[in-house]
Structures are given as C-alpha cells and as structure tokens.
Write a structure and sequence with these properties.
mainly alpha, 12 helices, about 0% strand
Length: about 290
C-alpha cells in the first residue's frame, strides 16, 4: 500500500470520482482516479486526472465569470473604465492567463498530496475540529495566516527583493497600470510562477491550522472570485476590505496595498494607502 493511497477521506476526487467510476467501471475507475488501493502508479494517475479536471474547471470559470462580470459592468456601470479595455489588450490578457493556468491549479494538487501524506491537519467534522467555537476560531486563524503569507509574498518576494522581482516576474502583471487597462480578464494575467506563489498559502496553511476541508474549498473558490473583483473597478469597499479601489492604487503606483482581501497587514506594516477622490475619480458615481 502506498503512502499516497493511505488517505482518501476529504480528497477532491471524492466530488467527481464516482462519476468516473460509473463511466469506466469500479476497478478501472478507482485506478484512474487514485481512490483505490492500487499502488503508486494509480496514485500518480489520480493526481494527473485531478490536475486535468482542475485545469478545465479553472479555464471554464475564468471565461464564464469574466463574461458575466463584463456583462454586469456594461449594463450597470457603462462608463466604468473596465469597459474601455481595448480588445487587443484583452486578447493578450487571456493568452497570458491560459499560459499560467497549468501551474496555478497545482495548488489544488499540493493540497491533495498534503492530505494523502497525512501532512494536512484538516478535520472531517465540526466535532473533530473542537466544536463550533473551536472551528470558528481555527477558520479565522486559517484566513489570517493565508492573508499574512500572501502579503509577505506580495510585498517582499514580488516587490521588494531584487532576485524575487527578477525570478517571479511580477512586473508582467503590473503592465496594467491605468484604469482602462484593468478588468476581470486581467485578474489572472500573471507569470505562472507569480500567481502560483500567491495561491500556494491556501495549501500550506492546512499543514499548520486545523480546519474543515469544506472551508479550504470555500477559501479556494473565494480567492478565485475575489481576484476577479479587485481587478474590476466597480463597487469599491471601505477599510478594512481590500476592495477594487484599494487594489487599483496598487497598480497605479506599483506600491502600497499589498494585502489580498483585507488591509490589515498593510496597516500594520505601514504600506496602506487609502483612496482619495483624486485617485479613483475615474469611478462612476453609482459605484462609490
């Protein structure tokens, strides 16, 4: 029995594994999905299948959500700069995003490997997590740890350290500096290693903080949605949220506001810049 096959409960494959088993039969299905006890080759096959499905879901989500967001902004915020991104630039954003998705989705694969190796501290029920109070505290701790690691990665590795800037190529995402160069299609337009490094904390923190696995999946989904939101300059949010108005300043000045969902660590580290009317006057009155 391989180490990878020792932990099945909570695997992402539990969601779509049964469908594959129905199509291919139990024996072949469990081998292909890595959900049986067929050895290391089956486990590796399961990771490849899981990666492939995650990649397809990521691409479908990116295109589907971006189309819906674009339709929303054009309908309810027709004067918003995000509607003025040139078709040629938008086509380039899609190309860059597609190039990065294969590495992005390995964050999900890392989470699966951590669970199968027994490194993840995820729990399988509220009671296993210490009851409702303990679960709530752990979920808050998980969120704050992820937020801190993303901030440190973004501030030090991607913006401050010269070797980090050179290797991670975060500057490729910062070619979008103006309001009419940012929209949902630009949200994932990073160098592959850049976006990957910012998503990796979602998997790493499961090895430290004990939280229910559904909460981890929720955070992964919330991260995908929030990334789209902060690159679409409508519906600004007030402090302590890192809304689109705060993140726009990060692109405009190539500094400040390194946090992801909150301004907490920017406030603590002194890198916060609050939006002023002169900074985001491009936003339509309805959005403010």
């Amino acid at each position: 029995k391989s180490h990878l096959g020792a932990e099945r409960i909570g695997d992402v494959m539990e969601v779509y594994g049964p469908l594959i088993e129905m199509a291919l039969g139990p024996q072949v299905g469990t081998f292909v999905t890595g959900t049986g006890e067929h050895g290391l080759l089956s486990d590796l096959c399961g990771l490849v299948v899981s990666w492939g499905l995650s990649f397809c879901l990521a691409v479908l989500f990116y295109h589907g959500a971006s189309v819906l967001i674009s339709a929303y902004t054009q309908r309810y915020h027709p004067n918003a700069p995000c509607n003025k991104v040139s078709p040629k630039l938008q086509e380039y954003m899609v190309k860059v995003s597609h190039r990065a998705f294969p590495l992005y989705v390995t964050v999900v694969s890392f989470g699966e490997v951590f669970r199968k190796l027994g490194w993840s501290r995820h729990c399988e029920s509220i009671e296993d997590c210490g009851g409702w109070a303990g679960t709530a505290l752990n979920c808050i701790a998980y969120f704050l740890c992820v937020e801190l690691l993303i901030f440190l990665d973004h501030y030090y590795l991607l913006h401050k350290f010269e070797w980090g800037k050179r290797v991670m190529k975060h500057s490729e995402h910062h070619v979008y500096k103006k309001a009419d160069e940012l929209n949902a299609w630009s949200a994932y337009a990073f160098a592959p290693q850049d976006g990957w490094s910012q998503g990796l904390p979602l998997a790493l923190v499961t090895c430290v903080v004990r939280v229910p696995l559904p909460f981890v999946f929720f955070m992964e989904a919330a991260t995908a949605v929030w990334t789209l939101y902060i690159h679409t300059d409508v519906r600004p949010l007030p402090w302590p949220f890192m809304g689109c108005n705060y993140h726009y300043l990060h692109h405009k000045y190539n500094w400040y506001n390194f946090g992801f969902m909150t301004c907490l660590f920017d406030t603590l580290f002194g890198t916060i810049k609050h939006p002023a009317p002169s900074d985001y006057s491009h936003m339509p009155a309805k959005s403010q």
